[in-house]
């Protein structure tokens, strides 16, 4: 059956990618010596799971995770067990003033009661008792009755005085702030929801008539056989059934037969070997930090978890910070790990690009690992992106080779380079039914008479008149001023090195990976040869970016979220890349890019890049020049400015001096006459100086925009929490 997005990721090219097949549930290993559950004599007992596999989660822990509340929240808030806060910050009385006021209120109440009790204020306060009660009750000879009436009345009066002075002295706030936290008991676990609303019983399946499937899943969840990835994967498959892309009968049969193992990922994996961040598969969020309790953050965000998910990454993310600021370990790797989990759940496809050894996770986390320039690499990289259209292949390859040389003005393009390549790729593919390899393409771009003559002869023998005209046009441009062929030849020569001799093969002898596989929930990591081949690495990074944006926009099934993670985007931002990134939002795709500084982007492209990206992150250690660009894109806001003028009051009489001393004891400040002027001013949300010098180490300032257009202002986030 179609497992809803978990189509076979092996069909990434003409040569399938081999993946190990998972053993069927309940299968017994050969020669295990187990026939009726009793081990054979002399053999150790059969292990409960495969060596190195993560232990199964406890059923109660999984059910607690599944039933935890996840209320709707503002963009970026970690929704797991989130407790919403008020939008406005309540007024908080300073501690010294609060305790002094409470003590003085108590003393005033005690003084009033003492004056009443000792008769200094007269006997008027017992008049209500004498008016409303008969004399036989008040002046009875029964001592017990008299005591009950009079002392009950005294208690009522004392209680009224206590309520009045408690209101004035804010005793309730003193209790909530200083006493209640120490008396608070551990919260009891919430009772399970009613059966018709319990997610562990899969009510959506029961409503559709799949009672047997729901019972099997509920039993596996209670027995601890289900993981969060299993739940997300089966929920994704059920949405495919509801959308009409998969038959209900096949889904039900698979779930009843396999339980939590149903609808597997093509790799057979049900989880990652280890997790470095906190993930919530129910909301597809990954927690990357905690919003700081800072006055510059909106009150609703302060102290809440900060999380990212496809609804935010769909607008793309740009993180800028110097080396050592935590871009890879605290931002890139958690996001890549979350997307890998999403791929195992059948709802995401991820391509991670970075230098070899950059800390982007172990190879076991990925289905395909392309180690460009490494002789032991099992997979190759398709230079032409898996397309058979010469014009499309030429456009992508031209962007990779000379995209950084194009006029950085947003209107600049590489059409002349694209035309040059198309004039060679089209005739070559018409004859050989494939595109040229790197050495062959270099020879054609150099204009060598031998390769061009052989190509012309083959075209004449095949009767390809249209392709001959293309080749004639290329030969006429050779040697002319402004011919892009020489520059293209110099750039392709960077890939025509002995270290890359076994890569970019077009003859079918290798196993190339193509980004056309984004229709499948595939996990891919591309290791670039940064050491010794920096220029070639930048060309390959631009190539993967160009192929990703081209492939993501033409996918037939856009239900999978496709994401490209560039650990270092230096040299990859071109005018065409900025335009293509803007169009990814409507294709359910996004790009995560990091830069050490915005100086790695041409000046005319910085503003368009920051405008095309929806989520922008400035990490600690930013330069003031980079901070200025972020300050401009985040804009200004209207805020209330208070100008306070204090004039100290000088007391001249003994009574005045006593009152002033009392005020100093209560408030901690000298008595002043204050004049306050309130006005509305417009100021930057975060200034360049604050971004450069006011962001603590391990922190970042992050603004968010989701695919629906909801916006979160710049937030100071602690990435270490």
From TrEMBL:
Transmembrane segments: 103-127, 147-168
Compositional bias of kind Pro residues: 17-27, 41-53
Region (Disordered) location: 1-53
Biased composition regions of type Basic and acidic residues, renumbered to the chain: 1-11
Keyword terms, alphabetized: Membrane, Transmembrane, Transmembrane helix
InterPro entries found in the cross-reference section: P-loop_NTPase
The name this protein goes by in its record: ATP-binding protein
Organism: Streptomyces formicae
């Amino acid at each position: 059956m179609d497992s809803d997005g978990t189509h076979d990721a092996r069909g990434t090219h003409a040569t399938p990618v081999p993946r190990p097949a998972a053993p069927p549930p309940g299968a017994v290993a050969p020669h295990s010596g187990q026939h009726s559950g009793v081990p054979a004599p002399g053999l150790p007992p059969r292990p409960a799971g495969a060596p190195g596999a993560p232990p199964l989660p406890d059923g109660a822990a999984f059910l607690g995770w599944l039933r935890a509340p996840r209320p709707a929240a503002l963009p970026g808030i970690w929704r797991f067990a989130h407790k919403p806060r008020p939008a406005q910050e309540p007024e908080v009385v300073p501690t010294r003033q609060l305790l002094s006021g409470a003590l003085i209120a108590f003393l005033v109440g005690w003084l009033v009661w003492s004056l009443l009790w000792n008769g200094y204020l007269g006997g008027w306060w017992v008049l209500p008792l004498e008016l409303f009660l008969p004399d036989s009750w008040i002046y009875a000879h029964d001592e017990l009755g008299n005591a009950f009436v009079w002392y009950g009345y005294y208690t009522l009066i004392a209680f009224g005085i206590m309520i009045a002075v408690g209101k004035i002295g804010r005793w309730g706030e003193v209790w909530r702030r200083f006493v209640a936290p120490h008396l608070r008991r551990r919260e009891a676990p919430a009772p399970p929801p009613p059966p018709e609303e319990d997610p562990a019983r899969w009510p959506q399946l029961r409503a559709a008539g799949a009672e047997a499937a729901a019972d099997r899943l509920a039993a596996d969840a209670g027995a601890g056989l289900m993981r969060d990835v299993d739940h997300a994967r089966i929920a994704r498959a059920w949405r495919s059934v509801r959308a009409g892309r998969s038959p209900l009968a096949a889904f039900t049969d698979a779930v009843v037969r396999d339980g939590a193992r149903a609808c597997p990922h093509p790799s057979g994996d049900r989880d990652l070997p280890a997790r470095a961040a906190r993930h919530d598969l129910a909301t597809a969020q990954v927690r990357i930090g905690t919003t700081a309790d800072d006055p510059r953050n909106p009150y609703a965000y302060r102290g809440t978890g900060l999380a990212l998910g496809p609804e935010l990454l769909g607008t793309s993310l740009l993180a800028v910070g110097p080396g050592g600021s935590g871009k890879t370990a605290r931002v890139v790797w958690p996001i890549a790990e979350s997307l890998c989990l999403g791929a195992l759940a059948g709802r995401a496809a991820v391509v991670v690009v970075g230098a070899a050894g950059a800390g982007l996770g172990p190879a076991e986390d990925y289905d395909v690992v392309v180690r460009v320039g490494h002789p032991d690499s099992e997979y190759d990289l398709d230079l032409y992106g898996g397309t058979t259209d010469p014009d499309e292949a030429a456009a992508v390859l031209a962007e990779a080779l000379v995209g950084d040389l194009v006029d950085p003005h947003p209107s600049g393009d590489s059409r002349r380079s694209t035309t040059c390549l198309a004039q060679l790729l089209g005739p070559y593919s018409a004859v050989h039914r494939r595109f040229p390899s790197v050495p062959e393409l270099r020879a054609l771009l150099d204009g060598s008479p031998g390769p061009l003559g052989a190509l012309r002869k083959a075209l004449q023998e095949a009767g390809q008149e249209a392709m001959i005209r293309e080749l004639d046009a290329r030969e006429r441009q050779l040697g002319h001023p402004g011919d892009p062929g020489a520059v293209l030849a110099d750039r392709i020569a960077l890939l025509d090195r002995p270290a890359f001799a076994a890569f970019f093969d077009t003859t079918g002898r290798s196993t190339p990976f193509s980004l056309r596989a984004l229709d499948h929930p595939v996990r891919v990591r591309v290791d670039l040869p940064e050491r010794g081949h920096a220029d070639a690495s930048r060309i390959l990074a631009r190539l993967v970016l160009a192929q990703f944006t081209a492939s993501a926009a033409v996918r037939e099934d856009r239900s999978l979220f496709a994401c490209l993670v560039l650990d270092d985007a230096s040299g990859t931002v071109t005018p065409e890349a900025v335009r293509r990134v803007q169009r990814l939002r409507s294709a359910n795709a996004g790009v995560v890019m990091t830069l050490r500084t915005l100086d790695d982007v041409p000046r005319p492209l910085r503003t368009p890049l920051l405008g095309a990206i929806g989520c922008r992150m400035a990490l600690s250690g930013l330069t003031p020049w980079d901070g200025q660009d972020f300050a401009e894109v985040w804009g200004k806001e209207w805020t209330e400015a208070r100008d306070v003028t204090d004039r100290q009051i000088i007391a001249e009489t003994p009574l005045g001096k006593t009152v002033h001393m009392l005020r100093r004891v209560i408030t901690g400040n000298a008595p002043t006459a204050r004049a306050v002027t309130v006005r509305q001013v417009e100021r930057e949300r975060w200034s360049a100086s604050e971004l450069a010098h006011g962001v603590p180490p391990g922190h970042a300032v992050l603004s968010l925009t989701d695919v629906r257009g909801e916006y979160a202002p710049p937030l100071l986030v602690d990435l270490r929490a």
